[in-house]
Amino acid sequence: MSAKKKVDNTLMRIYLDTIKSILGSQGLNSILNYSHLEKYISNFPPDNDELEIPREDVRKLHQSLIDLFGEKGARGILLGIGREMTFTFLEKRPAVVKSMKLAIKLLPEKKQMRISLERFVEESDRRMPSLESSSHFELIEEKEYFFLIDKDSYTSEGIVSEHPVCHVYIGSLETSLEWITGHSHKVEEIQCRAKGDAADVFRIWKKKSASE
Asked: CATH assignment of 107-205, given 3.40.1350.10, 3.30.1380.20, 1.20.1270.10, 3.40.50.720?
């Protein structure tokens, strides 16, 4: 199988660990049975960056959560998975990420955000190679927002919905931006392939969240 049809072991492990922590072992096993992924029952992949997990396995697990819990019910689980992705990256590469944070500490916050988003794109391309091209992301900066466009995401592939479903991205983006800037920034999905749009598009507010 082509490397472009696989994702890294850690991505699948985060899905499994997060679902287990929220729903328990029996809940996870039920979801794995429903999605015909019984091979992962009591058999989590190793925590490493090797591209060994079929992309289709992660896609089926993602879709199963939406099928079983509905769009609203699955949202909290998927946001948690996204947050855990960022935490895992920070924990696995503490020296690299801390040195990056120190290096950009004195930069304007908007510049810090751009660097963080560029790193997000870089890591996502490495961990989830595109089926179509070398990169499936486009980052656009405007006066008040950043727009992150993903043309080939497993999170919307094969799903039909009236509402955006890529909550994993939102959880990961919000967490990484808060870590790098020290402030919350709103991230919202304004287009989604699950709704029939051409790509998944996320609007990222440059201003701090109103709750602060």
From this structure: 3.30.1380.20
